[in-house]
Amino acid sequence: MNASMPSAAEPAVKDPDYVDSLERGLSVLRAFSMREGAFSVADLAAVVGITRTAARRFALTLEHLGYTFQSAAGYALAPGVLAIGDAYLRSNPLPDAAHPQLEEIVRAVGETASLTVLHKRRVYYTARVAADRIITANITLGTSVPAYSTATGRVLLGGLDPDELEEYLSTIEPASGFDPDYVRARIVEAREQGWAAADQEMTTGIRSVAVPLHDPEQRIIAALNISAHATRVSTSMLETDFVPLLQAAGQRTATTLWPGPGPAPRRPAAASAYAVRPIARPTDAIQSVERGLCILTAFDETHPAMNLAQISERCRLPRSAARRFVRTLASLGYLAPQGRSFVPTPQILELGYSLLPRLSLADVAKPRLEVLARKLGASVSIGVLEGLDLRYVARVSAPSPLTVNIRAGSRVPAHRTAMGQVLLSLLPPEALQDGASSTAADSAGEGLTELGDTLEAVREQGWSYVDQLLEVGIRAVAVPLRNRRGEVVAALSASLHEASTSGNDMVSTFLPALRTAADEFVMDLRDGLNL
Predict the structure, then answer these.
(1) At 194, is the secondary structure helix, strand, or coil?
(2) Stated pTM of the model
């Protein structure tokens, strides 16, 4: 993220409608986003430059909204804060359109691929697929870097008109180590050849190359890039091997976004995560912060851009109040005008998305699993495939006189579990055949060989039920967990002792509850989350 500390608003002149308390509240949230540990109220006040009383009120307000939590160490970000950045990613179809193309690039070359956009003077990473490498650039979804220092930034700066570009170049500080004339030459070069490369300029040891993504009017709206360690990739490979791949990915992304005559395909809308406020509203909560953050999180797939009347209705605000908050958010760079409407900018990813790399699926899933376990009176789990095994990544056990010795991290043969059967059923047939052949000497291989009809049925019906297959006395039913692009990333199950509930009851009662919970998990399964 941006390494500068939170400060007063950047605009030189504030209009009379400017909401100062909203600006300070967002500065508090940015302070949390830039720190891995917890803040005491005194530390928070000192960092942001406000009184302790104000710091406490802002922290309590954010806690009420589900964006921070309080512990013995102080206040820290809670997973609910990710809903703010989600508003940008949900309202903008570009990251979802590019993500499958980035995955294809990573499969092809084994290096990390990203999508970036330009906002103000910085480049924001809005989609990223990391290669399975020990050493890679320390960049995650929502990271922003100076545009002049990267290949992707120079591609994006090529979309500025001459006056805008010269104004931007004049802001490059000598301490940056980048000469404006050098940057200008690289931008011109990128325009002429249609791509840009950077050889260990921002980060020692990292080489990268980027190409532009154009809209139907041929405006540069984003850039696709590949980055790799210099020991693995030569500068010539950037041009000869990587540029064609990026250009093809850009064309496929554009085709997804603008398929031709007629409207673009509709994106499925997902329920917002963490919609329920975890604590009662404090009497001294700061209303302006609540209202401003309500506006930011109001954008989604069905509301990608909104005018003042729509924002007023969606957040239940008087029109005059909506106008003040929108003008303030636009002045701070979190909203941008689009005709008579407004859209969120990638800058809102700075408000909490730094937490994402520090979270696991277990962290995010725990509150929902606890609610589901209480509702069903059963143990509920989330699992992922690792080879032919199922690894439990999160689990909440129901009260029982019997102990099931399965915890997060446990691995069991996938075909013996409901979750494993759901996930195995979605693998290509050749993957199962190869797996059965490589393990034919053990029980897992024999089980896979005999499971063809069962997996086909699971695939068609979209769920699995197993009766005492993993352990005598244990029944379980499971459904897949999908992200907002419809990709299956894990499975969700409910299990209990066979004496408690009949198989028919599990299917008729547990299955609908699991499907409802799976729908609620959609927004929790974010790109970059540690599974």
Answers:
(1) coil
(2) 0.86
